[in-house]
Specification:
Blueprint: E1 7-14, H1 20-30, E2 36-44, H2 51-80, H3 84-90, H4 104-112, E3 117-121, H5 129-132, E4 139-143, E5 151-152, H6 155-161, E6 166-173, E7 183-190, H7 197-221, E8 236-237, H8 242-250
Parallel strand pairs: 1-2, 1-3, 3-4, 5-8
Antiparallel strand pairs: 4-6, 6-7
Helix pairs in contact: 1-7, 2-8
């Protein structure tokens, strides 16, 4: 009897021990290993920038007290050995490092492993044509916002600031235009009247992992149905600034 070929996946993500790690903790704990095979995980620097630049970005948004609390949590996670890389190693999944997903040698290496799909989870780079074509079914991305209204960065923050009652998680095909590919599936997480960004992000990351498992199963079975986006209603959000955080708090929400 011939063995059934598993659906092959390569992940690209960023090194985030607080939030993105929640996605992988849930995914690795729940995905059907008899049907899906993770060929490799590529972990890049947050925002694809220096640690100092990331620290300045986070400090500006969270302020001194919030930044200090986050720093303590990051240190605690490192002391516990909790990271995306550690989770992948525990599962026996190969780590495939790169300085850029668009580097020709990286594209060739990933293509050689013959993935059915490349999955972006908070990947900090724009994927160019070569990497978008490196897998049999191309690349898909999970985005913690309703598309196309909440394209861009920190969509959970912007949904909460806009008064949405639910944060929408979207899995979509990746194209040359950022956050513009056809939608493959969505999930929704309630936002309370007075809530914390921290809580909602954690919940959306866990929901995103479960949604991704469902979408990958549909892709593997050939039952996936893509829905094109109506880009006339699109908007793009950049990383929030300190004034945005003040408006966020005035609405009744907390950062942490």
């Amino acid at each position: 009897m011939s063995r059934v070929q598993k659906f092959r996946i390569h992940f690209v993500t960023e090194d985030d021990p607080l939030y993105v790690v929640e996605f992988f903790d849930t995914f690795f704990g729940e995905y059907p290993k008899g049907e899906l095979q993770v060929m490799g995980v590529t972990i890049q620097k947050p925002f694809n920038e220096s640690k100092l630049s990331t620290a300045k970005r986070v400090f500006s948004l969270y302020g001194f007290a919030g930044f200090a609390r986050l720093l303590v949590r990051v240190v605690a996670q490192k002391l516990r050995g909790r990271s995306i890389a550690a989770l992948a190693r525990r599962e026996g999944i190969q780590l495939v490092p790169t300085t850029s997903v668009n580097a020709p040698d990286f594209v060739r290496k990933v293509a050689t492993s013959r993935p059915d799909v490349i999955v972006s989870v908070a990947a900090p780079e724009i994927f160019r044509h070569e990497i978008l074509q490196a897998a049999r079914l191309g690349c898909i991305n999970v985005h913690s916002g309703r598309l196309p209204a909440y394209r861009g960065m920190m969509p959970t923050f912007w949904q909460m600031l806009s008064g949405e009652r639910q944060a929408t998680v979207t899995v979509h095909e990746m194209t040359a235009v950022l956050d513009a590919g056809a939608v493959l599936g969505t999930a929704e997480c309630p936002i309370r009247e007075r809530d914390s960004l921290d809580r909602v992000i954690v919940e959306t990351k866990q929901a995103a992992a479960r949604l991704m498992i469902r979408v990958l199963g549909e892709l593997a079975a050939g039952t996936s149905a893509a829905r094109a986006l109506e880009m006339t209603t699109a908007s793009y959000h950049s990383f929030p600034k300190r004034d945005d955080a003040r408006r966020f708090r005035r609405r009744g929400h907390r950062m942490l």
